[in-house]
Each structure stands twice: as structure tokens, then as C-alpha cells.
Design brief:
Layout lengths: L1 H6 L8 H9 L6 E3 L3 E7 L7 E7 L2 E5 L25 E5 L10 H17 L4 E4 L5 H14 L7 E5 L1 H10 L21 E4 L9 E5 L7 H10 L6 E4 L9 H8 L1 E4 L2 E4 L3 E4 L8 H11 L3 E5 L3 H11 L4 E3 L10
Parallel strand pairs: 4-5, 5-14, 6-9, 6-10, 7-8, 7-9, 10-13, 14-15
Antiparallel strand pairs: 1-2, 2-3, 3-4, 11-12
Length: 330
């Protein structure tokens, strides 16, 4: 993030020395007891290592969810509400999909495989922009296993991202973070997915899993610009949200791309399949019903999503949707 912000001419207010200081003081533990405070972490099911934070202090309790997901994904066990402390004085919850109910994950996976199979059958390329952390490894593992069991045809599959490839190596050293079905010595060693660093390494037709997930730059933008004008190709967007300035959003909504200021029509098929690691409205409500918090503060979501969720839980808990910089007293 420091490098990205420096490249964009902005500042995070920290430097590499600050990062080294934080790393030196890092304590790898799920619980910590201080003089007047107790902190516990619980698996959130969003990505590998994601955790909810429970804080007990001055006779009060708070649970901060961060991003979370209750259902299992292909490589990760979902958050288990049974393990969480009940009736906190305050629950701070994400509300990203507070007004959205998604189809069953199995239906979305079937849709993904159908789109890939059809495109490969017709000698087209499949572009799947993903995020380097967790989502690239999840997609690569998903496709690798589908080819291995015959769900997908044998074809050229590439994961193109230096950062994603570095993260994959780290994931292979922490197999205990993933589902038991993935807990081999190196769970992210692929049989059918090649990890490469350059577009020139691709042999078409191919499936390309690449970064960044929003298609702003790098390989995702490079291949979007190269493949979008070809009718036989398919571009699969797996994120439920695309920022307004995302080239993927422009291609999906306006059916053209811009290269050096010039417009080019999009002939490729663009399909959005939300394989999100966030809880949808049903899971958000389920967690609140289970925990029975006295107050619930809804954050990390557009206002309309937070308000939609509030309507469903306002009889279960006092709901607060704070404005920016607003202080909430427990």
C-alpha cells in the first residue's frame, strides 16, 4: 500500500520504518489480557486470517465483526456464530450487502463453470480479474479442482500476478488456516494452473486469473483491452462492487473501453457472478438474531444497504448508522 500510494502521489502517513516497528511488536495470539481489558479474536470466514474482535473493558463488551461470512467457501470455513460471545453491549457490524440476498453459492459456482465451459468450447478466452490476496488462490484452486474432476475441460489456465504468486507461497506454509480438505503440506500447489508473470507466457485459448480485481491497471487492464473486442471471449467479474472509475464497470455498463482516450466497443461477453466473501442480508440478520446485542452500529456499507439492514433488525436491537467522524458512546 505504501508503494501504491507513493506511485499515486498520495501518502498514508506511514513509511517502511513504521511497518518494521509494527512487525517487531506483533504478538501472534487469539487472546490477550491487559490490566483492565480482555481481547479475543474469532475466525471471521472472510479471507484467510480474518478475525472478529471481542473487547471486554470496564464491565462492558463490544464485538467488532470486520468483514465476515457465515457460509463455507471452497477453501475456507465460515464464521461459526456459536463460538461468539452473546449479548454484547455493542456490536459493530459490516453492512456491505445489507439489502442484498444472493443465490446459493453452489448455483453461482455452476454458473461460473457453465460460462467457462461454453467459452473454451468455442475457442474463446476467459478473463477473471481477482484480488491478489485469497481471491486469486481461491479461484485458481476452484478451477484446478474442477479440471481434475472433469467438471471443466482440460485447457490452458494461468494465474498472472507477482504479488498473488508470492501470497500463494505464504499460504502454502499455513495450511491450518484452511478447510481440512485443503490441509495438505502445500494446499495451493496446482496441477492444471500455471503461475506466470507475463502476458506473453499465455498460450490461447486460455483462462487468465489476474490482478487487480477492479481492472484499473496491470495485467487485468492489459487483457481487458486485448480481449474485450473479440466476440468469442468472456470476461467474468466476481466482485459485487465495482468503483465508478473501474474500466470493468465501464465495459459492463456502457459496453465500451477506453484506450489512450479512444473508445472501442466491447464485443466479448461480460458476466458478473458475485462470489463474495461477505455475508449477505440473510447472514447479517442471522448473526444479529443469534448474538442479541443491545446496540448495533452498522458500518462498511453504502447508506442504502445499511438502512435496508436496519429495517430488518430494528426490533431486535437498537440500530445506529453513524455519520463520518460521529462518536458513539456505549
Amino acid at each position: 500500500m505504501i508503494k501504491v500510494n507513493e506511485f499515486n502521489g498520495t501518502s498514508l502517513g506511514v513509511d517502511n520504518q513504521t511497518v518494521d516497528q509494527v512487525k517487531a511488536s506483533w504478538i501472534p495470539t487469539d487472546t490477550m489480557a491487559l490490566a483492565d481489558m480482555n481481547i479475543e479474536l474469532y475466525p471471521a470466514g472472510h479471507v484467510a486470517g480474518a478475525a472478529m474482535t471481542s473487547i471486554h473493558a470496564d464491565g462492558k463488551s463490544l464485538l467488532y465483526t470486520g468483514d465476515y461470512c457465515l457460509h463455507d467457501t471452497e477453501i475456507l470455513v465460515g464464521c461459526n456464530p456459536q463460538l461468539l460471545p452473546k449479548q454484547p453491549d455493542a456490536l459493530i457490524s459490516e453492512s456491505t450487502y445489507g439489502g442484498t440476498i444472493r443465490p446459493q453459492r453452489s448455483e453461482l459456482i455452476d454458473q461460473l463453470y457453465n460460462e467457462i465451459s461454453y467459452t473454451i468450447k468455442h475457442r474463446g478466452n476467459v478473463l477473471i480479474p481477482t484480488f491478489a490476496f485469497h481471491r486469486s488462490q481461491e479461484m485458481a484452486k476452484r478451477i484446478d479442482q474442477a479440471i481434475e474432476n472433469g467438471t471443466l475441460p482440460n485447457c490452458n489456465v494461468y494465474m498472472i500476478s507477482k504479488l498473488a504468486n508470492k501470497i500463494t507461497k505464504i499460504f502454502n506454509n499455513y495450511s491450518d488456516l484452511f478447510k481440512k480438505t485443503q490441509q495438505r503440506s502445500k494446499p495451493f500447489e496446482y496441477k492444471h494452473v500455471q503461475e506466470v508473470e507475463r502476458v506473453s507466457d499465455i498460450e490461447e485459448p486460455a483462462i487468465a486469473i489476474c490482478t487487480p480485481g477492479f481492472g484499473h491497471a496491470g495485467t487485468s487492464l492489459n487483457l481487458l483491452n486485448s480481449w474485450a473486442e473479440i466476440e468469442e471471449n468472456t470476461i467474468i467479474v466476481t466482485s459485487g462492487y465495482l468503483p465508478p472509475d473501474s474500466p470493468l464497470k465501464l465495459a459492463k455498463d456502457k459496453h465500451y473501453i477506453k484506450i489512450d482516450g479512444e473508445r472501442y466497443p466491447v464485443q466479448a461477453k461480460i458476466v458478473q457472478i458475485e462470489l463474495s466473501g461477505h455475508a449477505d442480508q440473510q447472514e447479517l440478520v442471522e448473526l444479529i438474531m443469534h448474538l442479541k446485542p443491545k446496540r448495533t452500529v452498522l458500518v462498511h456499507g453504502d447508506l442504502k444497504e445499511a438502512e435496508a439492514l436496519s429495517k430488518h433488525v430494528s426490533e431486535l436491537t437498537q440500530v445506529i448508522i453513524p455519520e463520518k467522524n460521529e462518536e458513539v458512546t456505549i
